[in-house]
TrEMBL record:
<feature type="active site" description="Nucleophile">
    <location>
        <position position="244"/>
    </location>
</feature>
<feature type="domain" description="THUMP">
    <location>
        <begin position="61"/>
        <end position="192"/>
    </location>
</feature>
<comment type="similarity">
    <text>Belongs to the pseudouridine synthase Pus10 family.</text>
</comment>
<dbReference type="InterPro" id="IPR005912">
    <property type="entry name" value="Pus10"/>
</dbReference>
<dbReference type="GO" id="GO:0031119">
    <property type="term" value="P:tRNA pseudouridine synthesis"/>
</dbReference>
<feature type="binding site">
    <location>
        <position position="376"/>
    </location>
    <ligand>
        <name>substrate</name>
    </ligand>
</feature>
<dbReference type="InterPro" id="IPR020103">
    <property type="entry name" value="PsdUridine_synth_cat_dom_sf"/>
</dbReference>
<dbReference type="GO" id="GO:0160148">
    <property type="term" value="F:tRNA pseudouridine(55) synthase activity"/>
</dbReference>
<dbReference type="InterPro" id="IPR055174">
    <property type="entry name" value="Pus10_THUMP_arc"/>
</dbReference>
<dbReference type="Pfam" id="PF22023">
    <property type="entry name" value="Pus10_THUMP_arc"/>
</dbReference>
<dbReference type="InterPro" id="IPR039894">
    <property type="entry name" value="Pus10-like"/>
</dbReference>
<dbReference type="InterPro" id="IPR004114">
    <property type="entry name" value="THUMP_dom"/>
</dbReference>
<keyword id="KW-0413">Isomerase</keyword>
<comment type="function">
    <text>Responsible for synthesis of pseudouridine from uracil-54 and uracil-55 in the psi GC loop of transfer RNAs.</text>
</comment>
<feature type="binding site">
    <location>
        <position position="305"/>
    </location>
    <ligand>
        <name>substrate</name>
    </ligand>
</feature>
<keyword id="KW-0819">tRNA processing</keyword>
<dbReference type="InterPro" id="IPR048741">
    <property type="entry name" value="Pus10-like_C"/>
</dbReference>
Length: 411
């Protein structure tokens, strides 16, 4: 049998423990642990060699090699007067015999963290990896499993036994148990909680995250209660776009993800927040890709704005109706003066789908603009000294000032 020949070939060159031998054939014989596979192979090699030895074949050298890591063979050899010494495994040096013992330390490190899913990640001394690589390369092994994989799998299984109800999750575990086999240290890496919700901003003196000028509160501050519920040490927010601090966010609201770093728990009941400045309504847990998608989507979302605009010169309703010419128009904007220092001279092209105006008094009108996300709406209204074209100010031939701006809908 090819497996036995190959196994004997390997054992002639290297003493390997049951696990390290069995691992080279890990893809053969489903539902066997590597040490069971390795032991079975050694037993069969032992039976074959002993019967050949008894029929007079010269296999003593092979028996001595096998005996280095196989007790029954040592026993057999002693009955025929040959003393063979036990040797340490060439690859792991004995580490795999009871690697499960690290699960106890890991369970200890996880105490106090309320999690559901985990993964084990280990780092091994370089020489172990090099020796494994040497064996795999020399014998062209294509049926094996890596030692790291076996260790992570076995400690993971032992942790499952010790921590009933938890699950192993490769892609997005709540926590990663890190075991450093060089130092023996076990640590826990806590992935952040990502809670998606939508927010409304009812105040014109509240910004998303930064405090400046007349801003009296931030959404970030208001969402600290989420961090406290999860027992985290820090929180940040990822919103699908942003309105100006003095613009209200009304209607259907805007998606935002609260990222709680180093949480003490991964599931909690988060009540909605409603105060005079903001409303936050939690929706559910998301992952990094979904956060990216929310941010990306904001660039192409359609938004509906309402603005209250002051005109320097009095306007008639008939004049004001000219703004409808701006429906279904492409607007070209150079980076507004107010943020110019940050990113100078960038050109942005956005669509205005629909625009309606209603005269409130000769100098004041209300404007509804349905446009592509990313349009600088204030600049689209007052023209920004010609940096945005076409603009409402240009069409009306009037100097305009935006008194109020609200986002009514994010479609
Ligand atoms: Zn080994």
């Amino acid at each position: 049998m090819e497996v036995l020949d190959k196994a004997l070939e390997i054992l002639r060159a290297y003493p390997l423990c049951d696990s390290c031998l069995g691992r080279q054939f890990a893809q053969l014989g489903f539902a066997l642990e590597n040490w069971e596979r390795g032991r079975a192979i050694k037993t069969l090699v032992h039976m074959k060699l002993v019967s050949e030895y008894r029929s007079g074949a010269d296999v003593l050298n092979d028996l001595v090699k096998l005996a280095k890591t196989h007790q029954p063979t040592r026993r057999f050899l002693s009955t025929v007067g040959v003393k063979a010494e036990e040797e340490k495994c060439y690859i792991c040096g004995g580490l795999l015999a009871d690697v499960e013992k690290y699960a106890e330390k890991a369970a200890e490190a996880l105490r106090g963290v309320e999690f559901e899913t985990f993964e084990v990640g280990s780092s091994l001394p370089r020489d172990i990896l090099e020796r494994e690589g040497e064996v795999v390369k020399r014998f062209l092994i294509t049926t094996g499993e890596s030692i790291k994989h076996e260790i992570n799998r076995r400690i993971g299984r032992e942790l499952l036994r010790r921590l009933p109800g938890k699950k192993v999750e490769k892609l997005r575990p709540n926590v990663v148990v890190k075991i450093d086999f060089t130092t023996g240290d076990v640590s826990v890496l806590k992935n952040p909680v990502l809670l998606e919700g939508i927010y409304l901003k009812l105040s014109r003196r509240t910004s998303q995250a930064k405090k400046f000028g007349g801003v009296k509160a931030t959404l970030l501050e208001k969402l600290q209660y989420v961090r406290d519920i999860f027992g985290g040490v820090e929180h940040v927010i990822h919103a699908g776009g942003r309105e100006d601090a003095d613009a209200r966010m009304l209607g259907t609201g805007r998606p935002v993800v609260v990222e709680v770093k180093q949480p003490a728990r991964y599931r909690a009941d988060v009540p909605p927040l409603v105060d005079s400045d903001v409303v936050f309504k939690p929706i559910g847990y998301v992952n990094r890709e979904e956060v990216r998608r929310i941010k990306e989507k904001a660039k192409t979302d359609i938004k509906l704005y309402r603005a209250l605009v002051l005109s320097e010169r009095p306007l008639t309703a008939e004049e004001l109706s000219k703004v409808s010419e701006l429906s279904r128009r492409t607007v070209v904007q150079f980076t507004p003066r107010r943020i110019k220092r940050l990113s100078p001279k960038k050109k942005r092209v956005r669509m205005v789908y629909d625009i309606h105006a209603r005269l409130v008094s000769p100098h004041v009108f209300e404007l509804y603009v349905r446009c592509q996300g990313g349009l600088y709406v204030k600049e689209f209204i007052h023209g920004d000294g010609g940096r945005t074209t076409p603009s409402v100010a240009e069409i009306l031939n009037a100097q305009l000032d935006v008194l109020e701006l609200d986002v009514l809908a994010v479609e």
